[in-house]
Amino acid sequence: MNRKQLAGYQAKHFDWQCRDGVATITLNRPERKNPLTFESYAELRDLFGELKYASDVHAVVVTGSGGNFCSGGDVHEIIGPLVKMKAPELLAFTRMTGDLVKAMRGCPQPIVAAVDGVCAGAGAIVAMSSDIRYGTARSKTAFLFNRVGLAGCDMGACAILPRIIGQGRASELLYTGRSLGGEEGERWGFFNRLCEPDALLGEAQSFARDLVQGPTFANGITKTMLHQEWAMTIEQAIEAEAQAQAICMMTEDFNRAYEAFVAKRKPVFEGN
Questions:
Q1: Shared domain check, 130 and 250
Q2: Is residue 269 part of a domain?
Q3: Euclidean distance between CA atoms 164 and 200, whole angstroms
Q4: How buried is residue 67: exposed, middle or buried, by Cβ count under 10 Å (0-12/13-18/19+)?
Q5: Residue 10 within any structural domain of the chain
Q6: What share of the chain is helix, strand, coil (3-state, %, to 5)?
Q7: What is the DSSP letter of 108?
Q8: Alpha carbon of 92 to those of 146, 182, 211, 265: distances in Å?
Q9: How does pLDDT run along the chain (272 residues), one tens digit per residue?
Q10: d(Cα 272, Cα 256) in Å, to the nearest integer?
């Protein structure tokens, strides 16, 4: 038994709060538009990895402070040191950043990104790797690797972004590094919804709370299948979903839903 209680987790490199099963991660370096450092990358990677075993966290909201989401890797604390590293060190770094995306995809909790203002580089990747994205009209999302002399294929962008907005649109963003505005992002399907800046975090947390009121074990299965079926044929996906749904049919939540239907009342799910 490896279940963990993470609601009381004490974060070192960002803010962490958890209430009623919804955890909120706030990147909190507003004076520099919330950039990531080697340490915050690693802590985020480790935390999302631990969430796989959490029994008290059922949805996660990721946001930034000060009217911006995340400006990417810190120029002075990451980019500067990178230009002095040899190939083995550089590969260790890029694998570590990729492991953050793997951990976000691998945890069963739905992740909602609440994106306001600047969302660039690694920040755009964190938003992309979330399951749901809420934005604002003033959001500016940029996969700007091209603009710093790098390829657009960073942290899974060439695999994940086309599945969200389509191959042609993803190609445009990854070749040019230009900013995707909030309204354009909603039209393209990058953002699920646009909110007023003052209401953004509250609406994202409200959506997350709604998910927590649902069958959270089954939601975790849904997330797993959404990601695993990328590499399956249709026939394999149908069989995998048959097995996954049979497992969900053995949960108490499935029984609760049936009993509530018979009694003509709303089911109260407990995630088991």
A1: no
A2: no
A3: 21
A4: middle
A5: no
A6: 50, 15, 35
A7: S
A8: 21, 34, 36, 54
A9: 467 899 899 999 999 999 999 999 999 999 999 999 999 999 999 999 999 999 999 999 999 999 999 999 888 888 888 889 999 999 999 999 999 999 999 999 999 999 999 999 999 999 999 999 999 999 999 999 999 889 999 999 999 999 999 999 999 999 999 999 999 999 999 999 999 999 999 999 999 999 999 999 999 999 999 999 999 999 999 999 999 999 999 999 999 998 999 999 999 999 99
A10: 10
We report the CATH number of the domain holding residue 93 as 3.90.226.10
Tokens of 250: 């053995």
- Residues constituting the chain: 272
Answer yes or no: do 109 and 22 share one domain: yes
Q: Pick from 137, 134, 126: which is nearest to 161 by CA? A: 126
